[in-house]
Amino acid sequence: MFNVYSREIADVEPILILKGAAGLSLGMAAKMTAGQLGKAGPTDKPTHIIMGPGKTVDSDVLYPAIRVLPTTIFAVPSSGAVGTVGKVVTLGADALSVTNTDTSGVFTVTYTENKANTLVLGYFA
Question: Does this model's pTM top 0.85?
């Protein structure tokens, strides 16, 4: 799950209420597709992070979300040992984690313990 760790800009991004696909969850990386949020794939740069459960209104599912900015540092679990600070890794298939794969990566690592299943810090550039 992507959690805000710190922000370079002191102001907090507003929480937006956006239409999205069913099944998105708290802390998930999402992208805007055809006017609604959907789960980001491993090499997709997310546009938003889901900040709470969806609520069905009429036939739409609405989610609270924040925009992804390069000035926001996220803490997120890694499925593999990320050995190098500065490595740009891909998202996990669940869009709630990152991998140690750097081919077509989208998440820049700023802190790692170089162990699998630990938190790494980083940002989307």
Answer: yes
